[in-house]
C-alpha cells in the first residue's frame, strides 16, 4: 500500500494512495488476474443464500425500514461547464436513498449500472462478468415511509476515481434507520452515465479540474436541491417523476455529510464553508488541501492510513475543530477497510483464487464481518447523536461490543 503524502490538488486517487486498481468498488492489484494461471478457467461462483446464484452480495441493513432509491439528474444552471462544451452547465448524477413504505414487486437497484460497471471492469482488466455484480437493498421508486416528521438528510462523497455506490453498506444502513441519503458522482472523476448519454469515466477530459475544492460547489448545489425537495419542488433536470412522498419529506435543518478518502476531504471543506452541514464524518480522508479555518460543528474522523501524525493535514484540521470532535481507529484497518471493499474484496478474491494473505493486503487484518459491523454502527451513532439528538453510549468511549475500536486522544 502506498501512503506517500502528495501535494497535488487533485487529492488521493486510488492508484496513488493504494497503488492498486479498482474493480467492483474493491481495490485489487493491477496484476490480480495473474494470481490464477492465465489458461485456467475462472472458478465457478458459489450461489448466494437467498439471492441470485453467483452474485457478490452486500450485507442487509439492520434498520426497521425497507429501503427505496431513485436516481436524480441535476443541472446547475448558475455554473457553466466549459469542459463539457460551449453552452453546457455543470451536471451531476445523484442517488436518493430513503426509508420505504412498501417495496413489493419493485426491482432492486444494482450496485453500479451495467454501462459504468463494464467500464469499471475494463479499466482495470478485472476478469469478472457483469452477472456477478452485486445488487443493493434499495427498491427502485418505492414510496417513501412518512411518520409525520421530516426526515434527516445525509450527503455522501466518494473517493477519487470511484462512483457514488462505493459505500452502499453505510448508505442503505442509514436509510433503513430513517435517513434520506443523497449520493453524488464527482463530475469528470467517476464512473457514471447521464440519461441517454454515453458512459463517463474518470480522466476522460484531462482539462477537467478534479481537485477537492472543485467539488465543494457541487455539494453546495446539492444542498440547494435538498432545500428544493423539502419545499416540494422537483430538481431533476429531466422532470422525471419522483417516488411518492419524497417531495416535502426532507428536513433542511438536519443535514449531515460523510465521505471516504478524497470524499472525506470534500466533506470537511464543504462543512467549513456551508453551515447547512450540521455534522461531518470523514472515513480516512487525508484532509488535503490543508484546512486552517475553524469549524464549530460536530466532526467524526475514522482514520487508518491518514492518521493525525504531527505536522499532517489531518492533525492541522483537528486543531481547528471547535465543536464536538472524535477520532477513532479500528485495529487492523487500512484505507479499504471503511466501505463496501470490506465485504466485496474477500468474495471477489476467493472467486479469483486469491490467498488469504492477498485478501488481507487489500482489506487489512480486521475481520470482514467486524469491519462491516463497525461501519454500520459508528456513522449511524454519530448522525443519530448530532442530527436527532439521540444520545447512545457508543461514542462515549471504548465499547466491549467493539473492542478493536480505539478512541484516539
What features would you highlight for this structure?
409 residues, Rossmann fold, disordered N terminus, 22% strand, 9 helices, alpha/beta, two-stranded antiparallel ribbon, 25% helix
Question: How do the strands and helices of this protein lay out in sequence?
Answer:
Elements (H helix, E strand, L loop, with lengths): L13 H5 L2 E3 L2 E3 L37 E15 L8 E12 L7 E3 L3 H11 L10 E6 L10 E7 L10 H9 L3 E5 L7 E2 L5 E2 L11 H19 L19 E11 L1 H12 L5 E5 L15 E4 L10 H7 L5 E6 L10 H11 L4 H8 L4 H20 L17 E4 L1
Parallel strand pairs: 3-6, 7-8, 7-11, 11-12, 12-13, 13-14
Antiparallel strand pairs: 1-2, 3-4, 4-8, 5-6, 9-10, 14-15
Helix pairs in contact: 3-9, 4-5, 7-8
Write a structural description:
The protein has 409 residues and is of the alpha/beta class. It has nine helices and 15 strands. It has helices spanning 14-18, 114-124, 168-176, 212-230, 262-273, 313-319, 341-351, 356-363, 368-387; strands at residues 21-23, 26-28, 66-80, 89-100, 108-110, 135-140, 151-157, 180-184, 192-193, 199-200, 250-260, 279-283, 299-302, 325-330, 405-408. It has an eleven-stranded mixed β-sheet. It has a two-stranded antiparallel ribbon with strand order 1-2. Strand 7, helix 3 and strand 8 (180-184) form a beta-alpha-beta unit. Helix 4 packs across helix 5 (262-273) and helix 7 runs antiparallel to helix 8 (356-363). The chain is globular.
Amino acid at each position: 500500500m502506498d501512503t506517500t503524502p502528495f501535494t497535488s490538488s487533485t487529492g488521493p486517487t486510488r492508484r496513488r494512495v493504494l497503488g492498486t486498481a479498482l474493480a467492483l468498488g474493491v481495490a485489487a492489484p493491477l496484476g490480480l488476474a495473474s494470481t490464477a494461471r492465465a489458461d485456467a478457467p475462472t472458478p465457478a461462483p458459489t450461489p448466494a443464500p437467498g439471492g441470485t446464484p453467483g452474485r457478490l452480495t452486500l450485507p442487509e441493513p439492520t434498520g426497521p425500514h425497507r429501503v427505496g432509491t431513485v436516481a436524480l439528474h441535476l443541472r446547475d444552471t448558475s455554473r457553466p461547464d466549459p469542459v463539457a462544451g460551449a453552452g453546457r452547465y455543470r451536471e451531476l448524477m445523484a442517488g436518493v436513498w430513503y426509508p420505504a413504505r412498501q417495496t413489493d414487486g419493485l426491482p432492486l437497484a444494482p450496485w453500479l449500472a451495467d454501462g459504468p460497471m463494464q467500464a469499471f471492469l475494463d479499466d482495470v482488466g478485472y476478469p469478472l462478468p457483469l452477472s456477478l455484480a452485486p445488487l443493493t437493498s434499495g427498491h427502485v421508486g418505492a414510496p417513501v415511509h412518512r411518520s409525520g416528521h421530516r426526515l434527516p438528510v445525509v450527503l455522501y462523497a466518494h473517493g477519487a476515481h470511484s462512483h457514488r455506490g462505493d459505500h452502499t453498506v453505510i448508505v442503505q444502513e442509514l436509510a433503513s434507520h430513517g435517513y434520506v441519503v443523497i449520493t453524488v458522482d464527482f463530475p469528470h472523476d467517476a464512473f457514471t452515465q447521464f440519461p441517454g448519454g454515453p458512459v463517463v469515466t474518470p480522466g476522460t477530459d484531462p482539462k477537467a479540474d478534479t481537485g477537492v475544492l472543485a467539488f465543494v460547489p457541487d455539494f453546495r448545489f446539492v444542498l440547494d436541491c435538498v432545500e428544493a425537495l423539502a419545499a416540494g419542488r422537483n430538481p431533476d433536470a429531466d422532470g422525471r417523476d419522483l417516488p411518492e412522498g419524497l417531495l416535502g419529506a426532507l428536513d433542511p435543518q438536519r443535514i449531515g455529510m460523510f465521505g471516504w478518502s478524497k470524499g472525506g476531504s470534500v466533506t470537511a471543506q464543504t462543512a467549513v464553508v456551508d453551515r447547512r452541514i450540521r455534522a461531518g464524518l470523514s472515513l480516512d480522508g487525508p484532509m488535503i488541501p490543508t484546512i486552517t479555518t475553524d469549524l464549530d460543528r460536530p466532526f467524526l474522523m475514522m482514520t487508518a492510513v491518514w492518521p493525525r501524525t504531527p505536522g499532517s493535514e489531518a492533525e492541522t484540521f483537528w486543531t481547528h475543530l471547535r465543536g464536538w470532535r472524535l477520532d477513532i481507529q479500528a485495529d487492523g484497518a487500512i484505507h479499504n477497510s471503511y466501505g463496501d471493499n470490506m465485504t466485496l474484496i474477500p468474495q471477489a478474491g476467493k472467486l479469483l483464487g486469491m490467498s488469504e494473505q492477498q485478501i488481507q493486503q487489500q482489506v487489512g487484518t480486521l475481520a470482514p464481518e467486524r469491519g462491516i459491523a463497525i461501519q454500520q454502527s459508528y456513522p449511524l451513532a454519530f448522525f443519530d447523536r448530532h442530527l436527532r439528538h439521540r444520545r447512545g453510549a457508543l461514542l462515549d468511549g471504548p465499547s466491549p461490543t467493539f473492542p478493536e475500536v480505539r478512541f484516539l486522544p
